[in-house]
Design brief:
287 residues, alpha/beta, five-stranded parallel sheet, 12% strand
């Protein structure tokens, strides 16, 4: 078994890396699977049926700000700390997060940990599908949990709200990167959430999150990622704001930016679920 030179416990690790470290006492694993309603998949049921040994289930919808009408917005610091302690994740732990798609919702949890000032977190490249394809075992056994305190300090510069994005769109001083499918970005396809207008934030550019991934659901190498961004017209010298439908796939773009060494990026948490809802916010259509 050999780990990849691209393994980075602060961004992305391979299945071989995780297998080699699986019994480390300070390793903690999260299954952060989340699916759009039209997939018909039940993330909790799939976790119960089989997960990577030791993994806890990270419920993106529950560990969120339930005071907001928008889906799975970042939770208050106190709620995040409470949920992590209840799952036995705290200071000194290396966290690896994966999902059942390959590389989808896990990136959202990576970004959330970074927002909370945690740096020892990585996404499992290729997720559960690659773990299984590479011959590693899964289990239905519940993990043993012991409380551990987590010191949290929110890094607000990693988060943008609608006012910030509206200002950036007007001034053009940020690269606003939309991770949705091209037909949704152009406004040619209806939004999956009722009441949403179609189109995109004026001045934003489209980098479909799937274009950042290879056929097996792993993330492309940094040189290829940089090419995807530049081919899409992204000015990498400007600070970036990532956005999508509800702040999930935007985090894949954020992770890809981090992988190419670009650290001045933030995520628009409300994303199109917020922007597309309000008639007084401008929209653009077309490519």
């Amino acid at each position: 078994m050999t780990t990849s030179p691209a393994d980075d416990p602060k961004t992305l690790v391979s299945t071989d890396w995780l297998a080699a470290h699986l019994k480390d006492p300070d390793l903690r694993i999260f299954d952060a699977s989340w699916y759009m309603p039209d997939t018909g998949r039940d993330a909790k049921a799939e976790y119960a049926a089989g997960h990577i040994p030791g993994a806890r289930f990270f419920d993106i919808d529950e560990i969120s700000d339930n005071r907001s009408e928008l889906p799975h917005m970042a939770p208050p610091v106190e709620k995040f700390m409470s949920r992590m302690r209840a799952m036995g994740v705290g200071d000194g732990h290396q966290v690896v997060v994966y999902d059942g798609t390959g590389l989808f919702s896990a990136a959202r949890v990576w970004w959330l940990f970074r927002l909370m000032g945690q740096t020892n977190i990585a996404v499992l490249d290729g997720g559960l599908p690659k773990w299984v394809a590479d011959g590693h075992k899964v289990t239905s056994a519940a993990p043993t949990i012991r409380d551990r305190h987590m010191t949290v300090k929110m890094e607000a510069h990693r988060l943008r709200d609608v006012t910030d994005v509206a200002r950036a769109a007007k001034l053009g001083d940020h690269s606003i990167i939309d991770a949705r499918a091209p037909e949704r970005f152009r406004g040619d396809a209806p939004e999956p959430r009722e009441g949403m207008r179609s189109g995109h934030i004026p001045g934003s550019l489209n980098v479909f999150y799937k274009d950042l991934l290879t056929a097996d659901g792993t993330m492309k190498a940094p040189t290829a990622l940089r090419t995807v961004f530049t081919d899409a017209g992204i000015n990498l010298t400007k600070p970036a704001i990532t956005t999508c439908g509800s702040g999930v796939t935007a985090a894949i773009v954020s992770l890809a930016l981090e992988r190419i060494g670009k650290t001045d990026h933030a995520l628009y948490d409300g994303s199109w679920s917020e922007w597309g809802m309000y008639a007084d916010l401008p929209i653009a259509t077309g490519a």
